[in-house]
Each structure stands twice: as structure tokens, then as C-alpha cells.
Amino acid sequence: MADTSTRQPSMLQALLPIGLLVILLAFSVYIYGSDSSYGANQIALVICAAVALLVGLRNGQTWKELEQGVVDGISIALGAILILLMVGSLIGAWILAGTVPTMIYYGLQILSPEYFYVATCAICALVALSIGSSWTTAGTVGIGLIGVSQGLGLSMEITAGAIISGAYFGDKMSPLSDTTNLAPAVTGTDLFTHIRHMVWTTAPALAIALVIFTIIGLNADSEQQVLVLQDTLNLLDNNFNISLWTLIPLVVVFVMAFKKIPAVATILVGSLLGGIFAIILQGDVIKTFVNKPEMHVALVYLEGVWTSLFSGFTVSTGNEVYDDLLSRGGMASMLNTLFLIITAMSFGAAMEVTGLLHKLIKTVIGLAKSTGALIGSVLATCIGMNFITADQYISIVLPGRMYKAEFKRRGLDAKNLSRTLEDSATITSPLIPWNTCGAYMAATLGVATGAYWIYCFFNLLTPIVSFIYALLNFKITPIEGDEIDG
């Protein structure tokens, strides 16, 4: 927020960086297509951040103040950046250890192709509900399920949509989730009151999503799936030591996540365990991967594990689908994603430190006259914050603070606001390529955000259900406590 001694920004100034960003991103996609997130979008974000800072200078702010605001804004994402780097290492180490291949191998035999998408959504929902983390769910079970979908000859894009739909339902409804605790904390609502109130919007959205995934799965090409399935099983069996022992790192990560041990530490332990189990169980795989027969075997093992952590695992069998499936991971694979996150957070920080973000939100609040319009404006604001600030936590905290007094003034219980924050800020964050969540999911699952977002049915439906409730004045609770059913 700009210093009070400076001139307050105008609405035109607030819209200038936003409008320019829309134009530049449109040109980026038009010129570079699916490769726009590999540099072009980042440049667009940097340019628009610079425009916002110029507006701040024009209004009397100092460069030192603006620069510090951007640095502080980027620092918010450092936790996500560390997690991304650890997940890159985990993927490489777990493939080398046979953990991911074993998950794929058994998953191919257990999961029916016809019901794979709906089962994927349900599995991820249950896992995320138990551990309270959509990111950990996608980075562990999600990686295996993506591999299973390739092995079955199914769509990776739809699978990613099912993983994210289930993971975000479980994350949103789990009392162990950070966002589920953050939203009621910001608004002054009891945690379990908040969760019970969310059932009304999340349950219908998930039910519809499960029906859609079931219909899609029943219309898949089963004959092609059988051929791809057997080929993949043979390749996995021939190239890895498939064993339940390889799943121990997965179990350890789940236990640590359930005990709420910090994500960075949890994933780091999982990565190192993957390296240890690779040495114990996949000696031949490491030797083939390193391909230095003249080197002492101990050094070969060390180089294999070390390389998998920073550069990922690669395999070349002549089968393109199989090679793409398992040539992944390493910290280096996350560098472009970090580039995107840092530039996006710079833009969001520039908008906030110059007061442009505050101007936009205050204007939106002033336009909302009815209860339906007020809740609709919260939904729109949070989604907009996900686009502008690239961070779901800011998209919860900032609108939560801004709208809290207005909800109280209108006699609306704070749990309506906390539910709406989660129905929009939490749920839509993985649908935006430069948001930390969207960038994480794309990098972890190996599917571009622009390719999977249309299949995240739960994430797309939840804000719609929430808005319909607002328009009908259904399950909107006044401060007195009695719900108003339309």
C-alpha cells in the first residue's frame, strides 16, 4: 500500500498495468502458442510490473520504497520455490529408485481404464483430505497416476484435471490444510464451522465432477488401451526391479505429511530415501543410467543418485511413450517454473506497493449493492487476485481483510466470507499458468496449465455453485445465526 503522503492512484492508473498485461499475454500466446510460458509470459509480467512502478513514481513514491515492496512480495513465494526444487529432486530420485515405476506397474493392473478418471479424482481427494496438502498429493500419488494414464493410453490432460480436482477438494475440506486454517483465521470464523459451511458448495461441485469423469471414462477406447497396457508392463518389468519395498519412501512422506512436518523437510527426506533405495534395489538401473563401466561402482552409484537429484532421470529404450513417461525430474526441471513465479510475484508486489491493487478492490466493493453482488464481488476479486498477485495466500488474506468489515456492516456471518474466499482463491489458483499453484501443478505433473485447466471440473464448478447460492440467497447466514434459504 502506498504511503499516505503520496497521491492516491486513480482508477485509470490502476487499470493501466492490468490492461497492458492482458494485451501482452494475448500476443504471447498468439506468437508462441504452448511455449508462451517458457519466457514470453515472464517478459510480459516484468514489463507490466515496471509500468506499475512508474505509476508509483509518478504519484510521489520513492524508488527505494517501491523496490523494497517488490523484494518483500517475492519473498512470500520463497517457501513455494523451495518446495518446487525439492519436488524436482523427489521425482528424479523416485524414478531411479523404482518408486514411481512400481506405482505405475501396480496401478496399471488395479485401475480399470473405464473408471480410471473418476477413481483418480476420488483417490486424490481421500489422500489430500488425510494429509491436508494438494501439493504433496500431486507430487506423490499424482505422479504415479499420470504414469498410469500413459500406460493405459489415456489422456494425461484429463488425468491431470482429475488429480487436481480431487487434490483441491481434499485440501479444501481438510482441517490439516494451511488454506483451510488461513481463511477462517483472516475472517474470524471457527475452523470447523468454516468446514461445515463449505460442504454446501463443495459437495455438489465434487459430485458433478465425479459424474463427468465417469462419463468420459466410459467412452474411452478400450481396445487401444489393452495394447498399450501390456507393452508398458513389459517395459517396466524389464527395466526396473518392481517391488513393494520401493514404496517405503512414499509411505514415509505420507506419515510425515500427516504429522504436519514442514513440506520442505518432508519432501527432502523423501528424495534422500529415494536415493538410498535406488542404491539398494536398482543397482543395474543406476549403472545403465550413468553408463561409465570404467568407474568404481561406489562412484557410479553416487553419480547416479546425485544426477537424479539435480538433473533428473533419463532412459532411452526406443519406445517414445515409455521414455517420455520416465525421463523426468531433477531440480533443473523446475527452473523455468521458478522464473515464472518470480516474475509473476514481482508484478503482484508492484501492484500492491503502489496502491493500485487497493484501488481496484475498493472500487469493486463500492459497486456491490446486494448480498448476491457482494459475494459475487468477493469471488471475482479473489480470482482476479490469483491472476494479478500469482499467490493463493495473498488472494485469501487481502480480500479477506478488505471485505471483513463490509460483511459485518451488512449483518452477514463471517463464515460466508471465509467460505467464499476458499470457493474462489483456493480453488482457482491451479488454473492460472503463472500462479504458484498453476506453475507447480504443470511442472510436477508434466502437463501445461493451458492444457489441463478445462478438465479441472471441481475447480471450475465450485465458484459457479457458490455464486448461484449467493444469487438465490441460499445457505447465506446472517450474524444472528439462522440461515436464509431461498
From TrEMBL:
Domain Na+/H+ antiporter NhaC-like C-terminal: 166-473
Bilayer topology annotation: Multi-pass membrane protein
Keyword list, A-Z: Antiport, Cell membrane, Membrane, Transmembrane, Transmembrane helix, Transport
Main location: membrane
Cellular location(s): Cell membrane
InterPro entries, alphabetized: Na/H_antiport_NhaC, Na/H_Antiport_NhaC-like_C, NhaC_Na-H+_Antiporter
Transmembrane segments: 12-32, 38-57, 69-95, 115-136, 143-169, 198-218, 239-258, 264-286, 298-318, 338-361, 373-394, 452-472
Keyword Transport part of the UniProt annotation: yes
Keyword Repressor applies: no
Any Pfam family matching the protein: Na_H_antiporter
NCBIfam families in alphabetical order: antiport_nhaC (TIGR00931)
Protein family membership: Belongs to the NhaC Na(+)/H(+) (TC 2.A.35) antiporter family.
Protein name listed in UniProt: Na+/H+ antiporter NhaC
Origin species: Kangiella marina
